[in-house]
# Entry
Amino acid sequence: MNTNPGIIGKKLGNTQIYSEDGNVQRVTVIQAGPITVISKRTKEKDGYVALVLGMGERKEKHTNKAQLEVAKKANQTPKRVVKELRCTEEFAAKFEVGGVMKIEEIFTAGQKVDAQGRTRGRGFTGVMRRWSFAGGVGSHGTHEYFRHGGSIGTNMTPGRTLPNIKMAGHYGDEVVSMQNLKVAQVIPEKHLLLIEGGIPGAKGSTVLLRHAVKTRARKAGR
# Structure
């Protein structure tokens, strides 16, 4: 279970900035705040440690009673996005229920992070779009099989289609993680994080950012 420090945010889109040496950096803009701590999970009561984070405002008439009761206990208004973030006891102790998380206390420029988001749904697609198949040959008498997937099994033995064969089907709309992305810039006054490269998800979707779990310290001279 990943318990590295992190935060939730909203993907605003992509842009580019100039680095100190004049090179162009393609970045993804994340609105990471203001994020409110709605409640805590403790090992004594719940068996694990976590922070329940809320982002954005939500009307009370559109909120169910369970979420409304949790918000009232924290003396907060209902939040549009509510997500539980597993963490260590040391990280959870830094925040109080009802407090606001500051991104400059969690992330710094140049740091490596892992990003997680839900990709855009593409509907029902064929094997060439979904799995990057090459398709059938376009000559030698081929008829209506240009974009087919080809054979999916044998005839007599085992006489059935084996599991996990790549076929046409629902594509996208799944949780995808990207590791070791670099924080290009932190803008605390606007609650913005600029992350180098792309992050899964459509504009306006919720993403999760954590400290990277697979970073290695570079040796001297490399």
User: Anything to note?
Assistant: Residues 126-172 form one domain. The radius of gyration is 23 Å. The mean pLDDT is 90. The chain is about 10% helix and 40% strand.
